[in-house]
Amino acid sequence: MNHAKPTVFVVDDDDAVRRALTRLIRSAGYRAEGFGSALEFRAYLECGPSADHNACLVLDVQLPDLNGLEFQHELRGAGMPLSIIFLTGHGDIPMSVSAMKAGATDFLVKPVSDTDLLNAIESALGSASQALASRIEIESIQNRIERLTPREREVLALVVEGRLNKQMACELGTAEKTIKVHRARVMKKMEAHSLAELVRVTDKAGIQLPPPHPPRSPESVTAA
């Protein structure tokens, strides 16, 4: 994980406000990057800054090109999970409700006090840090899943359903001792030390496992 200093992006078309905000944020120990419009910040994001970084966005609602609420929806649609703090001099309750429902962490009315803004930034960065840790964990679990063979994925699907080795052997048409080998490999590749842990990581990643082959009759099961 990237342990760089947290970054606060500021998008506000008022030069004086933007400079004041970035100075305040830097004085609190954060990195701060200022942009005069949503389009300018979009161009910055398209250059590909690392996603493995703790950051949040202080976003003015009234912008000259794309307003803050529209840009929020654009970022969500592009899969960019930035924690957003809205600032506005013309806010109203419906606007703030819409922003919060869309995932904003705070909605502050200008002029905002230094304390209120820094508290909001601290909260937003906390949410961003948790989201980043969760995303990294899910990616790690998905990488482990990809190391499994097709048969091991079938075994995993049955294991997390709570099937016994004997039941899995019947289901997959193989010997119980073969199931034990596959099960041990699944536990090792998934880096799980217990059935409970295996179920947890599989559920957390939302993995859609392939269904096993149709059940086979006892007569068709051959001893291995």
CATH topology of the largest domain: Rossmann fold
Task: List SSEs in N-to-C order.
Answer: EHEHEHEHEHHHHH
Q: How far is it from the N-terminal to the C-terminal residue, by CA?
A: 46 Å
Radius of gyration: 25 Å
Class by helix and strand content? alpha/beta
Overall, the morphology is elongated
Instruction: Provide the CATH architecture of the largest domain.
Output: 3-Layer(aba) Sandwich
Structure in words:
With 224 residues, this protein is an alpha/beta fold. The chain has helices at residues 15-27, 38-46, 68-77, 93-101, 114-146, 150-160, 165-172, 176-189, 195-205, and strands spanning 7-11, 31-35, 55-60, 83-88, 106-109. A five-stranded parallel β-sheet has the order 2-1-3-4-5, sandwiched between helices. Helix 6 crosses helix 8 and helix 7 (165-172) crosses helix 8 (176-189). The protein contains nine helices and five strands, in the order E-H-E-H-E-H-E-H-E-H-H-H-H-H. Helices cover 53% and strands 12% of the residues.
Question: Any chance you could write out the topology, listing elements then pairs?
Answer:
Blueprint lengths: L6 E5 L3 H13 L3 E5 L2 H9 L8 E6 L7 H10 L5 E6 L4 H9 L4 E4 L4 H33 L3 H11 L4 H8 L3 H14 L5 H11 L19
Parallel strand pairs: 1-2, 1-3, 3-4, 4-5
Helix pairs in contact: 5-9, 6-8, 7-8
